[in-house]
Write a structure and sequence with these properties.
Blueprint lengths: L15 H4 L5 H6 L1 E10 L2 E8 L5 E8 L10 E8 L2 H7 L4 H4 L4 E6 L7 E6 L5
Antiparallel strand pairs: 1-2, 2-3, 3-4, 4-5, 5-6
Bound molecules: zinc ion (ZN).
Zinc ion (ZN) binds next to helix 1.
Amino acid sequence: MSIHCPVETSDPTECILWKTHALTIEQVHGAFDLLTIVSEDSHSIRKLLCCKECGHLQFYEFNEEVDWQEGKDGQYWTWIPVDDEKSAENLSVISVMEILMYPSIRYDYPKGSDSARGPAWYGRRSS
Ligand SMILES: [Zn+2]
C-alpha cells in the first residue's frame, strides 16, 4: 500500500461541461487546450489540459486495453478536474484503477461493444 501525495479536486461548478446535462464526445474533446503531455506510450496517454472557456485544469487519461485477440480493443477516456498542477502531477503517478476514485468525465468504448458509454460525469459531489 503506497501513500500518495495529495490530489486536490474541487467541482468545477462554473464550467460549461459541468452545467451541461447531455455531454457529447465532440463537445468534451473540443473543450480543452493542451498544456502538457504527461506521459505517452502506444496504448495510453496522460495529459494536462485547460478548459478553453473557464480555465479549469483537467487531467486527461486515455487507455486502450490490448489483449492480442481479434476484434476491437476496449478504449477508455477520463477527464478529471484538478485544482492545480501539483495535483495533476500527483495524479499522474497513480494507477488507472485509483484514478477512478476522483470525480471525472468518462467515455468508454468497451471491447466488443457496438456503442460507447458516455461521456458522462461520475462521482460528482454536488450538482
Ligand atoms: Zn470549463
